[in-house]
Every structure is written in structure tokens, then in C-alpha cells.
């Protein structure tokens, strides 16, 4: 096992330098540093929710576009029908509106693919991997409990080390003060022998206390060294499970990004071919000269003009 990996500082492949993160740049096996892994799992859950929210909004925009296109088409055809336009131009105009509405079917299928192949897939993934109780996500809580259990005895040992360190350093301070006081008394010609004896006894007592606390401190450090491999193994085992959990989520995102791309591809869409065909037919039926001739025959020079002629008064 690579023990060094377990105590690498966090954030070497993540943007914690930019984000506010209290766990950044600290050893993973330090007390409560596992919360960085828990926070990552929680962030994964939130990202799944955000994914669903964002692409549901995209689907809503598509549906709204389709609805607006229908309304626009109906209103436009009505206005053209009621306008002064006539002939093949009027017919081609109306058919062009109907043809352009065909794109709505394309967007309808985009919505369907978005919903079925992207949004629903993420909803299912989230439900399967982030099952919730009333208060928390079950899997994340499981990781948290396992980290706490792995660290429980280690924290107790660290508390013992910290206490023995303080005891030893306090004893050292008292010893140094006593040794300084002894030197002062020894150099004082007026000091009584009893004072000197008492000070020597005091120094001797502090030395014994210092040695005892030093021994205990060193023993706790040794206990830590002996315990460390198992502790690191336990922490790394849980961490690796969170890696697997997170790797699965990232792979799901990658898969759905590809599905999103496929959902939006329209180059081979049959509705676009239909729309093109309708446009071509309406354009082919358009005949400017025919419209000019029709108008001319009804309103122009081909009409029968009522020329004035001499008229007698009729009784």
C-alpha cells in the first residue's frame, strides 16, 4: 500500500485555491480532514440536482419555443389571408409559414430526447445512488460514519500525545526555573545551607518529573508510530470507496454529456427534409408573371374599360 498517498495535502487536482475550502492544503489523515471527502460527495449530489435543473430549463425553453411557433404560425396565416396579397405570392407566403412551422416537430423530438436520454437518466442515477432518509443522503452518511469509526481511536491517541506533550513541556519549564533559582542561590554567599539543600531537592524532583513525563510522551509517540499503518489503511479504504462513488458520478456525467450532444443533433432530422421539400414546392409554385397577369386581367389594362360615348337624352 502507498501510505504516502493517504497523507498528501488536499486540493492537488481540484480548484480549492479558488474556492473557499477549510480543508485545503492539509494532510488527509489529520483529524476531521475526511470531511473534505464528505463535502465532495455532497457536492456531487448537488451537481446532480443542478444538472437536472439546468437541462429541465433547456427543455422548457424548447417547449415554449414550439408553443410560440404554433401561435406565430396561426396568427401569421390569418393576417396573410386577410391581407390584400393575392395569387401565387399569397399561396407561397402561406405555404412558407406552414413549412417553417415544421421545425417545431424537430424541436419536439429534441425535447423528447432531452427528457428521456438526459434528464430522466440523471433522475434515475440520482435516485439509485443518492437515496435519502429524512435528514441526509444515506450513502454519504455511511461514508461519514466509517471515517469517524476509523478515526475514533486515533483521535484518542492524539489527545494522549497532546496531553503528554503539554505535561512534559510544563515539567521542562518548571525544571529550568528551578535550575536557574539554584544557580542564583549557589552564587549568593548569604544563602543558608538549608535553602541550598531545599533548592537541590526541588531541582531533583523536577528532573524526575521531567523524565517521567518525557518517557510517557515518547511512549505515546511510539504507540502512534505503531498504530499509524493500520490507521492509514482504514482511512484510505474508506477514501477509496468515496473515490469509486465519485468516479461513478463523473462517468455518468460524461455519458450524459454525450447523450446531450446526440439529443441536439438535427442534421439528419426527417422534419428538416420535409420542411425543405415544402419550401421548394412553394417556391416552385410561385409565378410573378402569372400574378401580374391575373392582376392586370382583373384590375389593369386587360379589363374592359367603359369608354364614354355620345348619349341622347332618354325620355
Primary descriptors:
rod-shaped; 0% strand; single chain; disordered N terminus; mainly alpha; 8 helices; coiled coil; 315 residues; Substrate Binding Domain Of Dnak, Chain:A, Domain 2; F_BAR_dom
Summarize the structure.
The protein has 315 residues and is mainly alpha-helical. The protein has helices at residues 3-6, 35-81, 87-101, 103-129, 138-187, 193-264, 270-285, 288-299. The model is unreliable at 1-13 (pLDDT under 50).
Give a written overview of the molecule.
The model is unreliable at 1-13 (pLDDT under 50). With 315 residues, the protein is mainly alpha-helical. Helix 2 crosses helix 5. The protein has 8 helices and no strands. The longest helix is centred in the C-terminal third of the chain and has 72 residues, at 193-264.
How many H/I helical runs?
A: 8
CATH fold title: Substrate Binding Domain Of Dnak, Chain:A, Domain 2
CATH class: Mainly Alpha
> In the CATH classification, which architecture applies?
Up-down Bundle
Structural category: mainly alpha
What is the terminal separation in angstroms? 128 Å
- What's the structural domain tally? 1
Amino acid at each position: 500500500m502507498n501510505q504516502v498517498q493517504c497523507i498528501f495535502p488536499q486540493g492537488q487536482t481540484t480548484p480549492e485555491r479558488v474556492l473557499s475550502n477549510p480543508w485545503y492544503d492539509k494532510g488527509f489523515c489529520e483529524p476531521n480532514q475526511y470531511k473534505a471527502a464528505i463535502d465532495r460527495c455532497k457536492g456531487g449530489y448537488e451537481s446532480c440536482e443542478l444538472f437536472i435543473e439546468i437541462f429541465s430549463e433547456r427543455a422548457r425553453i424548447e417547449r415554449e419555443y414550439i408553443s410560440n411557433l404554433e401561435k406565430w404560425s396561426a396568427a401569421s396565416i390569418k393576417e396573410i389571408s386577410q391581407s390584400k396579397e393575392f395569387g401565387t405570392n399569397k399561396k407561397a407566403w402561406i405555404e412558407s409559414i406552414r413549412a417553417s412551422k415544421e421545425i417545431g416537430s424537430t424541436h419536439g423530438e429534441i425535447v423528447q430526447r432531452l427528457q428521456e436520454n438526459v434528464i430522466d437518466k440523471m433522475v434515475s442515477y440520482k435516485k439509485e445512488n443518492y437515496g435519502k432518509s429524512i435528514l441526509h443522503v444515506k450513502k454519504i452518511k455511511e461514508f461519514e460514519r466509517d471515517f469517524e469509526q476509523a478515526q475514533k481511536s486515533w483521535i484518542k491517541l492524539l489527545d494522549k500525545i497532546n496531553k503528554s506533550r503539554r505535561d512534559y513541556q510544563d515539567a521542562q519549564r518548571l525544571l529550568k526555573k528551578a535550575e536557574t533559582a539554584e544557580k542564583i542561590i549557589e552564587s549568593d554567599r548569604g544563602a543558608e545551607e538549608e535553602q541550598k539543600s531545599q533548592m537541590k531537592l526541588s531541582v531533583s524532583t523536577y528532573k524526575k518529573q521531567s523524565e517521567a513525563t518525557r518517557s510517557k510522551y515518547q511512549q505515546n509517540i511510539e504507540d502512534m508510530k505503531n498504530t499509524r499503518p493500520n490507521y492509514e489503511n482504514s482511512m484510505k479504504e474508506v477514501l477509496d470507496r468515496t473515490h469509486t462513488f465519485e468516479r461513478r458520478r463523473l462517468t455518468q456525467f460524461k455519458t450524459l454529456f454525450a447523450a446531450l450532444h446526440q439529443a441536439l443533433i438535427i442534421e439528419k432530422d426527417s422534419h428538416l427534409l420535409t420542411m425543405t421539400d415544402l419550401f421548394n414546392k412553394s417556391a416552385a409554385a410561385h409565378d410573378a408573371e402569372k400574378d401580374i397577369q391575373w392582376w392586370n386581367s382583373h384590375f389593369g389594362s386587360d379589363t374592359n374599360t367603359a369608354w364614354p360615348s355620345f348619349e341622347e337624352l332618354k325620355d
